[in-house]
Structure formats: C-alpha cells, structure tokens
From TrEMBL:
Record-linked PANTHER family: 60 KDA LYSOPHOSPHOLIPASE, L-ASPARAGINASE
Residues in L-asparaginase N-terminal domain copies: 43-245
GO MF terms held by the record: asparaginase activity
Signal peptide: 1-17
InterPro entries per UniProt: AsnASE_II, Asp/glu_Ase-like_sf, Asparaginase/glutaminase-like, Asparaginase_C, L-asparaginase_C, L-asparaginase_N, L-asparaginase_N_sf
Keywords: Hydrolase, Signal
Biological-process GO terms, alphabetical: L-asparagine catabolic process
Source species of the chain: Fusarium poae
Ranges of residues in domain Asparaginase/glutaminase C-terminal: 266-372
EC number: 3.5.1.1
UniProt-recorded name of the protein: asparaginase
Amino acid sequence: MLQSVITLSLLVSAVIASPTRIPKRDGHNADLTWISKDSSLPKIMLYNTGDGTILSGSANGRLDTNNYGGPIGRLTPETLIESVGEVLDIAQIAVVNFTGGRNGAGSANADSDRFLNISMDAHKRLCNPDSDIVGAVMIHGTNTLADTVFGVDLTLNCSKPFVATGSMRPNSALSADGPSNFYDAVRTAIHPEARDRGALIAMNDHLVSAFYSTKTNGNTVSTFLAPDQGYIAQFMSGQPYFFYSPSLPKARNYFDPFKLSSPLPKVDVLYGHQGFDADLLYSAAKNGAKGIVIMGVGPGALSTAASKAAEDLYTQGVITVASFRPYFGLSVPSPETEMIISSGVLRGENARIQLQLALGAGYDFEGIQKLFEGEVRKAVYNDATTFFNGTVL
C-alpha cells in the first residue's frame, strides 16, 4: 500500500535507475531492458539517434532557442522518459541506440545507413510475428527527421505504428515542445487506429504522414506539414483524433532493406534556378553519382541545357529525376515517356531517397519510371483525357 502513494517522479527515477527486465516470448528481443511501472502495459521501442533539440539544453538561459547544445542540460533517452513520466502510465519502453556519425554534430550528418539500420532492426524486433511489441517511436534531430523517417517508411513492411518525433525548442526553453511531442508519439505508437498508415510524425499537436511531410519552417514549432495532403490527426489532452480511416499513401513503394546493395548508390540533388549551369550534372556524374534529382522550377521544369545534359547522361547510365521546387504541387510527367523521369508527388529530398533505393534494389530505367510516375499517369492519362496524343504507361 505504501508503494502506491510514492510520487510518480520518485517511482520513475527508481525504475530508470534499475530498469525492470521482463522475460520475452521471442529471441529477437531478449536483449532489451524495459523501463516499466506496470508489466501489463503495451510495449514500445524507442529508437534514439543521439541527436536533436529534444535532448538538448542551453547554458544561456530559458530564452535561448538558437545557440543551445553541449553537455549542460543535455538529456539521455532515459532522463527524457523520466522528465515525461506520464508515458510510463501508458506504456513500457525499451531504448535502442543508433548514434552513428559525429557525436553532437546534429542530424545534418545522418545518411542512408541510419534509416536502413533502424528499419532492419524494426523488422526483426517489431514486425516479427511472435513479437509482443505494439509500436515504435524514434527521437531525431528535426533538420533531417523527415528524410530519415521517409526512408524508414519505404523500407519497413509492418502494420504496427512507427512514429518519429523531436522538438524545435530545447528542453531548457520556456514552453519547450519536446515533452508534449514525446508523449504524443508514445500515445500514437500504442493506439490501434495508428496501425496500417505507414510511418508518422508527431509534432505540435498533430500527426502527419511521413511519406508526404516536409519541414517548412526552420525556427517555429509549427513546421512539419504535408502541404497538399494535410494532417492525419490532431491531439487533444494527449489523445489523437484521427480524421480518416487507416490507409497507406497511394504512391508509396516498398523496398526490402535486406536485399539492397550496400552502400546505396550515390544520388545528388541540384537546385533549379534561372541561369542554371548544366555542367553541374556532368560534375555530379563524374564524382560518382548514379542518379541526379533536379528540383526544377515550377512543377519540375528544366532549362533546355539541363534537359540536354540529362538526356546525354541517360545514354551513360545516369538517371535524372525532375522534381518540383515549390512547397505545394507535384511533377506531372508528359504524355510520352521520356529520358527524364518526373518525381510525381515526391519533393526533391524524398525523390533522392527513393531513387537511391530503386537503384540499390536493381530496378532498370523503365522500372524506376513506373515507381515515380505510375500513379500520376493513371490519374492524368486515361479514357477521359484522350485529347493527349502520346504513349501512356
């Protein structure tokens, strides 16, 4: 009876100092340490990438939201859980660390190995038919959070929720957003309505599809948006209200992470603009790029010189994908198939990742073209648009 009246903070501290180990039903998760108050609660994985504002503090005071970082006030995943003790009222949590790259250098140093390693680990721990883990949360620096979780989305074939989160303000700031974002992510990971939606991002009281999301503001908490597709859910008092029934993004493709070449082929992204230097394409190819994504003006328009260079590189085995530069819209392919692929619904940074995966999986040009353009072609070029005179895939 006495134990039941111990304050939550002391209980959480005790649990974290001496985590409860719970026997597992499968061998894939025997090495996990569960941070737990109640062994009957659902279990989730917490993937820690080792970077991000959500773990950072500032030596400059509570008003600093720009020049934070360093050892002062820095959290670990365990102390983050302790500071948001409410998560242990709803779930048991096991931390798995993926902290490659230069420590403290931020998520700008992440590469494709990060999402592939996380995805392969999640396949074994989360997606195994015998696993009793119901979902996963990933904490990540927001600068490249959307890149990593998009990569996970395309390489994780699992109905269970995978939820990425972070923060725009350090934990030392006035009205820090990390604690509520973390709680919302954990709540989503155990929520039955979060299944069968692909990977998600929980930030600023909203859920957004990882497939469509992009970081739209470098400074404010309202940053991760799906500009055309909108939010999936909104949080109220820590509870998600889902706007739609579960479904996967229409143009989402899956790549088996265990069957990809390693390392993935190099793909560079170029930014289209007036006076674009087409020699940049040749330089990228000379430096080892097997694919190039150009964020073209408008819906992905390329200059005449850039188009000619891309067509020339096509004959050398280098694939070019034209993506759109604005936040809104998509890149619609021409009626006739061409030597330059349109990115469809994917922005430049996501088109790069999908092109890497497609090349790493061994797709040829025609196969890659269908991955990017197939769904858009079906929507635009059909019996209702016979006024287009061209070959339709």
